[in-house]
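Internal ticket - ligand job 459, manganese (II) ion:
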Amino acid sequence: MESVCWKRQQVFASLLQVFHTRYTMDTRLPSERRLIIGHANMDLDCLGSLALASRLFPDHMPVRSRVAHPAVREALTVYGYEIPMLSLKDVKGERPSSLVVVDTRSKSRVREFWDAFAKPPEQIRVYDHHSSEDGDIPGAQLVENPYGAQATAFALMCQEAGLSLNSELSTVALAGIYADTGNFTYEGTSRGDFEAALWLKSQGASLKMVQRLLRPLREPFQADLFHRAMGNLTWRRFHGHVVALSRVDCPEQVAGVGEVADRIFAAEPVDVLFLLVRIENRGHELVVGRSRKDRFNLLEVLESLGGRGHPSAASALVKDGRDVWSQLLALLETVPVDALTAADLMTRTVTSIPPSLSIVEASMLMEDTGHTGFPVVEDDGTLVGVFTLRDVSQARRAEAMKAPVQAYMAKRTVVCSPSDTIREVERLMLGHNVGHLPVMSGTKMIGLITRGDYKRVYS
Ligand SMILES: [Mn+2]
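stdout (structure tokens):
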């Protein structure tokens, strides 16, 4: 009896705390409470989702995770009064009658809440955008959405419902969208994300504050980790992809390693990055991956390590003490799909011209075919140069349109071989400022890569 009283008091105290910040007091018994939760180690999208969900489900109360990203802690310091939340302590021993789960569908990411509840909730609705996660929360009804951020789905639902937001809520939600879409650049960023951002801006979101919340490496340990990881960085090549790897020790588990990986990835001109962090006090190892290539799917590589996230940004926390470094290297040897090569990119049927062709004829051929340049090839098939629109203009200025193309063509031709990866192709085209790159097998031209072929890779 005594313990029940004590507990009631405690709950009453937490309710009182809530009362100060919430407009109406939640007077139901704790066991009837309706709650909103996100994933462990909440990030900005999770916070934005909790905030908007509390508007969409006003009879539900959000609960924050035990650990939160530094940016989330800052947002809560500034805006906490507008986003009242319970803590895990407040919901310990509860039997919520209804639960809304946001920004995850995976049981392992909500375990700390499940462990706190005395009994699993009766009704569970999950709102999530991580299509690669296992939806394994028992008894949950999943509402899946195709956006780059979960806050996007809730912002569009608010808009649809005719709700208006204050500047605090819209700022937090907008920061979540920026964070989860990598400033609208990640694969998976959708039209909906832009529309939600537009609407949130119209609801008074502060871009200055968003920028502040998104500033990188705000914690001293992050800068320290960044510098140590940069110091250990090695570059290796797997299946034509250039992969940077770095492994560092960290005394304990910390939130915000992903941001450190983002900064390293932004600074290094590689295709893929893996940052491995050994968490000394637990014997765990965190693997954070970043990829800027469709052909390098991090989820496939990290699958056997328990990886989760997105094909371009994923992580795995390995707890069983195995040798993660050598296992990752073995996976990198086998799993990734080969990088795109010149042979994949090139056009095989190429219109070429002989060196003796007149410039006026070559320019007419350009008009007819729509090409902006041709390889210049001798009768025996030897490539002797590349003649482009640029050369036509020069000849026109010199009033030499009747001259043969060999007088104006580029003779020191930049070429590549079919096995060159897109990286080398890029280096050659951008480095030499050429729009036509013949692909050679020995002395024989087997194809041509144009600007159009190159742009298709990024479309
Ligand atoms: Mn998210």
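Auto-summary: Confidence is low (pLDDT under 50) at residues 1-6, 18-25. The chain has three domains: 2-214, 220-334, 342-457.
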